């Protein structure tokens, strides 16, 4: 709070108009949530938040490290700031997030991007006011090396981007060490927020009119493990569902080794919870899964899918898949195709394996060319497209509930089903950010078309 007061005074001396800040997010929903906190903090300090980098006095790049192409894209974007900063010497450039939790990246920024003023990691967003103060008063760059910090700061001011959709981080970090994944190295050890804090944030969101809430964590199914009180993810879900109101709860990501029947039963018993479960499978072959250190077999994966199908009417699944893990053969890749055809996911996020420095898989032998992996990826995408078309077709004639997202000039609207399918419809009244009942009449491209019932 001291630093916030100090930085306010500095800004008053330096700027005649309200200074502007721009926070750019790369990567996942967790990063989006962190960016909302950074915007909250900057807005609390006195910045007006803008989408324009050109007119900003403070630019924050919240970065991602999950794949190499994310990092390359971010470096390209940071490079472009050099000219903007030359045009506006008052501009502060800050880089935070997962990418700068790797020392070799911090070193590269120091060496090759000298116009970057501030670098700070993912687990200590609250240091930003101090770093800004020191940057201004000492006229010295503030480049923090990655630190291992595990306490959780509550009561962050948060400036939400959506009016009906919001996310809540329920836990941070990951202890799973899947052999391809950088997350446990950059986000640190797993720790959960207290249920009372999550409940208070959830209640506030519902009271503020939010209708679509996503609970976030790298592995939500291990929620509660480090807490003193005995609580697991199923208990937390059940607790949240006692809050009255019209809303839908999503959660991501689940780990197939940790999701259990108790969680499925809670979903079954609470219609507020989305009927689409995100359950990243990563590969369809047991040997590859073992090498990935996923700690489940396809048999176990199918057991939980089948249990959910027995228990929950209209349940569907989305997933993440990596093709071309080191040592994966063509035959093993075909097992992934088979799995995709068997489960018939409603949504699939597919990636080509990207080696990440410091992970176990980065040292494994990899004999398949990137070109061949691209062929596999494209085949999988094609298979999945057909599956999605079939899913879309199966909706025609059905009545659904959807949350209205956007209004267009021609009087048409788009709404989203809880499984993320988009529905287009016309209406004379504006139902933006509200739930509507729709009768699905057809399919257009990758969306559904509908008539408004209520
Ligand atoms: N290469 C490619 N994809 C990866 N993912 C995580 N690490 C890598 C990597 N090194 C994918 C996984 C994960 C999703 C968020 O990103 O599928 O579930
Ligand atoms: Fe990465 Fe595995 Fe943790 Fe997910 S569960 S964040 S893939 S290590």
Entry keywords:
globular; binds 5'-deoxyadenosine; alpha/beta; Rossmann fold; OB fold (Dihydrolipoamide Acetyltransferase, E2P); 37% helix; five-stranded mixed beta barrel; binds iron/sulfur cluster; 3 domains; pyruvate-formate lyase- activating enzyme; 19 strands; 454 residues
Instruction: Outline the low-pLDDT stretches.
Output: none
The biggest sheet amounts to: 6 strands, parallel
Question: What number of structural domains do the residues give?
Answer: 3
Strand order of the largest sheet: 2-1-3-4-5-6
Q: Which ligands occur here?
A: 5'-deoxyadenosine, iron/sulfur cluster
- Would you count the extended β strands for me? 19
Spatial gap, N to C terminus: 48 Å
CATH topology name of the largest domain, in short, is pyruvate-formate lyase- activating enzyme
- Structural class, by secondary structure, is alpha/beta
Strand content: 15-25%
Label the overall shape: globular
CATH superfamily of the largest domain: tm_1862 like domain
Give the second-level CATH assignment, the architecture of the largest domain.
Alpha-Beta Horseshoe
CATH class of the largest domain: Alpha Beta
Q: Helix segment count?
A: 13
How would you describe the oligomerization state of the chains in this entry? single chain
How much is the average pLDDT?
95
- Percent helix, as a range, is 25-40%
Backbone CA Rg: 23 Å
